[in-house]
Amino acid sequence: MILSNAEIFKALEKGHIVITPSPKAPSIDNTEDTVFDSTALDLRLGNEIRIPYQSETPPMAFDLSKGNIALLLNRIYDKHTIDEKTGFPLEPSQFALASTLEKIHLPIQKEGPCYAARVEGKSSYARCGLIVHFTAPTIHAGFKGIITLELMNLGPCPITLRTGLPICQIIFEQVQGEVIFSPSQFQDQATPSGLKFS
Q1: Where are the domains positioned within the chain?
Q2: Topology of 5-23+36-53+67-174 in CATH?
Q3: What is the pLDDT of residues 97-131, one digit of tens each?
Q4: CB of 12 closer than 8 Å to CB of 22
């Protein structure tokens, strides 16, 4: 069951979903700007971008079976802070890791509902060629941390990314049945590469 905007806000008020900083309540008469859509809410782009190092030496192969992906990415990705005035131009065919400004927590509770979520791109940005994630939209029950975004510009010209841009939307679903906590390697992540510290 996908939560409506009113149900998302109720879950936020009860602490069943935690978003920091907390979003303002949806406008009943749609007269105010709001981060809420009818069945989702917007998340904003943080100020850090990670780009794969450019080198004349051929890159080493990713051996995904070895784990420790966050440490690997931290070593081979260059950290950039988005300039407040100029933003960050994501060039055509360029791949980058970024993260949300907001921290998400989907607590597993003995009493009360538990939620999972999906992160989706925004239609208006997709029409410009911006992909916001690759096959990784699921936020599992129990997760806590910022959300890493896998960005790719498939369009014909650079796309300027700015801190605070409503970059994606999050959709919440109620989980049926008991949840046994199974933290991922990215639990409590604080950087786009997945480290627990910045």
Answers
A1: 5-23+36-53+67-174
A2: Deoxyuridine 5'-Triphosphate Nucleotidohydrolase; Chain A (2.70.40)
A3: 999 999 999 999 888 899 999 999 999 999 999 99
A4: yes
Both tokens of 111, joined, read: 């009493």
Nearest partner of 139 among 183, 83, 95, judged by Cα: 183
Helices (H) and strands (E) in the chain, counts: 3, 11
Assessment of whether the complete model's pTM goes beyond 0.85: yes
Active site residues: 150
Q: Which residues, at least 6 apart from 89, have a Cβ–Cβ distance to it below 8 Å? A: 158, 159, 160, 161
Q: Based on the number of CB atoms within 10 Å of its own CB, is 167 exposed (0-12), middle (13-18) or buried (19 or more)?
A: buried
Say if residues 142 and 106 touch (Cβ distance below 8 Å): yes
